[in-house]
Amino acid sequence: MQTLVTPIIPHLPALLDTTAADSTWVLTSTLLAAAISTPISGRLGDMYGKRRIVLVLLIIMAGGSIVSALSNTLIPMIVGRVLQGVGLGVISLGISILRDVIHPKNLGGAVALVSATLGVGGAVGLPVAAVIAQNFDYHYLFWLALLLAVVAIVLVGTIVPVSTLRAGGRFDFVGAVGFAVGLVGILLAVSKGNEWGWTSPVTLSLLIGGIAVLLIWGAVELRMTDPLIDLRVAARRPVLLTNLASISVGFAFFITTAALPVLLEAPTTTGVGLGQSLLVSSLCLMPLGLIMFFLSPVAARLSNARGPRTSLILGGAIITAAFALAVWLHGAIWHVILISAIVGVGVGFAYAAMPTLIMRAVPPNETAAANGLNSVMRTLGSTVAATLVGVILSSHLVLDGGIGIPTTQAFQLVFAMGAGVALTGVIIGAFIPTRGTGFPGTASIPIQRA
């Protein structure tokens, strides 16, 4: 869902009869919807059953795919993409379900495997989407998304057991609205600031207003009996530091998505780009996701033997080394493949550790909401990364036939920034407590035995 429309981004203005600026909402709307949906669906999952909410979200995703598949203009396309974005709340819910149904001794491996599928989806989805976009009507992209959603609905409905663990209380509608308004304001300002102007009244109003709303929201949530997000739990040292480290991992991970395709597809005439097609570029980035997937058992064993904090720190250190290497090594296709592969190793270790660290620090009936907030932190990191990469690449250009191509210095600056942010995550991770806080991964549906 996240890479679905990437191959057709340059063609969206013509396909949807709109402007280039307005066509970017096809991407932005999905990002915003996912960021809002994730913590809210997590809370609903804790209250009414994670499996039930997963099925609801998948049905919404399927509906969004149908709307987009039948769309030829901008507004219905955005509506469909928003619905697809709402469905992305299944990611954190799916990981949280594992705590309910998997025996504690197998939980680390299961979490690592499911976390790794995030990379696999993008790595495999991008070249598949490129092939469809280049050879067929672009609407087939959304019919494919519908097929995947239907398959997921059938599999979840027939295999995943009904959730028995419930959190009490009432759903915090006021908190949900406040969180959504504040988060949308901040993410919109960050993602559109370069386009609208960082000092424009719209950008400043959204950024300042979003921060103000979240501050008020936090004060109200602390007084609520049944808050959307228990901020006292979120402020615990293990949860807070893991979420801060997650921002850095999400930031570093997205640099590969935002910068490496530009480097691969830029023309060779300036001596910077590698002149590859979208399909070849997609194949060059596949190692990142595939390595994440196949590395998951190793990451799980490391977490079990040395603790998830060790896995997180090691992952951040590997990402730091990869981007430090990329500063000087990015002039050939095999360089890009190597960097992508090394980043995949680091992200695989880090992604395997973060949900486990969160689940060790929160009670079982708050697992989904806490994982949802952690997912939002990764999204925030990715959004900031996309914005800063765009600013750097667009401000360091060399003209080629009237077209601006990013310079070598632009890519070096981007990779150095990625290394610095990843190193910051390593330092933060070093302060995460090594011991849990008394909330073991007890299965609420003990379908497995030790």
UniProtKB/TrEMBL annotation:
GO terms for molecular function: transmembrane transporter activity. One of its GO terms (cellular component) is plasma membrane. It is a multi-pass membrane protein. It comes from the Bacteria. Residues 1-437 form the Major facilitator superfamily (MFS) profile domain. The chain crosses the membrane at residues 53-72, 78-98, 110-134, 140-159, 171-190, 202-220, 240-264, 276-300, 312-330, 336-358, 379-399, 411-432. InterPro entries: MFS, MFS_dom, MFS_trans_sf. CDD domains: MFS_MMR_MDR_like. Gene3D superfamilies: MFS general substrate transporter like domains. It is found in: Cell membrane. Keywords: Membrane, Transmembrane, Transmembrane helix. PANTHER family: COMD (PTHR23501:SF197), MAJOR FACILITATOR SUPERFAMILY (PTHR23501). This is MFS transporter. It comes from Lacisediminihabitans profunda.
